[in-house]
Amino acid sequence: MTRPPPAFRRFVAIDWSGARGKRYAGVAVAECAAGDEAPRLVTGPGGWWSRTAVFDWLRTGLMREPALVGIDCAFSLPFAVAARGFPGRDATVFDLWDAVEEVCAGEPDFGGAPFAGHPLHGTGFWHRGPQPEWYDDPHRATELACRADGLGNPQSPYKLIGSKQVGKGGLAGMRMLRALRAAEPERVAIWPFEDPAPGRTVLTEMYPRLFLKRTGFGQRKIRDGADVDVALARLGSRPAGLTGAVSDHASDALVSAAGMRWLAGRAEAWTPPALDGRARRQEGWIFGVGMEG
């Protein structure tokens, strides 16, 4: 990107889930306006979010005004492995999204699990049991940069083992992003694959742990309203004013919404030194990672 990013007046953070079901306790949405206004939680239909409900809410929001949206899911896969599914082609992330949709089209609510079981595209996934000898834990450059920054250890999307696995959430997110881009091609840009442009909502991959680390919470989860306000203050935000227990999904969304606003005006967040052609075409980048090289 050669020009400064557009100014946003609205910031959204989405804590995502790849679980199977109709609605999920693990999905939370928060938004805030420009300035120092406190972020607020957005309640899903009937008090719960499905992935389809998130898609509908985002699409409706596109009609209001452009926003910077962060979603806590991998927007792509490590292409050292994913490229095997496209023999003889120099595939892009959009080819990958098309393949995920083709394989998973019958799965409700943007579910992505069938892709991991596909005979061609699914061969790199570790599904169960002890680590196979062939599995070498592939990562995208942005995940390695996240580790180098001391911001945590993002799991490989190809590791579908344990409570911290992120692969199914990433595949579901790819389906949702593809659908949003197809439905509103003139209103959205998916960063860093597409440059931000005036009048467009920009969707980015986010990592909530980045904001928790930068506000002094390290590897701890925030589960108390007072701690949410401590983190918000360190991101230049007024307090949310919540009291008592808060789910870590809600706190991740609230703190990340303020964090997205805090990062948005920093040119280095949009142009990290390691953001190369492969990241722009195939693997993507976590917003705010690797800003100092």
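Above is the first protein from milestone M3; the second protein from the same milestone is given next.
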Amino acid sequence: MSIVMVCVVSTLVTACTTTGVPADADPAPWKRPETMESSAPVVQGVEGAGGGEGGASAGETKKLYLDLVKEMLAKGLPHAALAYLAAMENQEGKLPPEGAYLRAEALRKLGRLDEAQVIYHALLDTPFVAQGHHGLGLIAAAKGDRAAEISHFERAVRLRPTDSRMRNDLGFALMLQGKPKEAEFHLRTALELGGDKRRSERNLIILHYLVGDESMAERLAVQAGIKADEKAFLRDQAMRIARGLPIVPGGTGADAAAVPGIAPTPRLDQTQGGADTSIPAERGRSGNGGF
């Protein structure tokens, strides 16, 4: 009987993430991320596969690895995420579709867009087809291909209509394309679905500033408990969008800066493990997208 001994040692990780309003928002999402000094959890001792008393089954071990990878990505540690995926691949022989998706996410966050794109494309023939389209949309956003970005986001939302992150990113992309009504529909849907509420709220505020509805923007800011300095930042982001200027990283955008739609380079899901600014859920635009 073979027994798998798995020991997980968790180390406290402290990080200030955000570039917009995307994921894993911190108390002051409009500020730049701070240096992260911590070590990732360590998974040790794989001496066999299968279950047994006190041991973990192959399925449990796989789930453990995937959960650790998700944790690393959430904490802005894409290098560590790739290391765990490599360890899992060594043990399993091949990554499951979810593992491949997480690898693409980590690569994208590191700015290795071409490598990530290949994996996202491969996911279109798996049960993770929606995630594949969403990832391809983020890649398109990072490369400034607005038409492809929206097309992929729309396909992702059709396949996963209750996914708040995908809704947020589609709404942000539509806002940047000058379609405020459609954008508001998806951003409000994302907000009501839950998930990254901070990002959706800030994207909606930017949208209302953008269309000149100051009263609604102010009302939403009050409801969200947003302070004057962040509110000024969101107003400035709206003005930059209106003038066709690049979004300022470190706000509340999609994966990059905050909401999907405003982030530095890769936007929605910021590359370099950054948080979002507000608009897209993962992207960092330089003129199109990615809070």
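Note on the second protein: The chain is about 50% helix and 5% strand.
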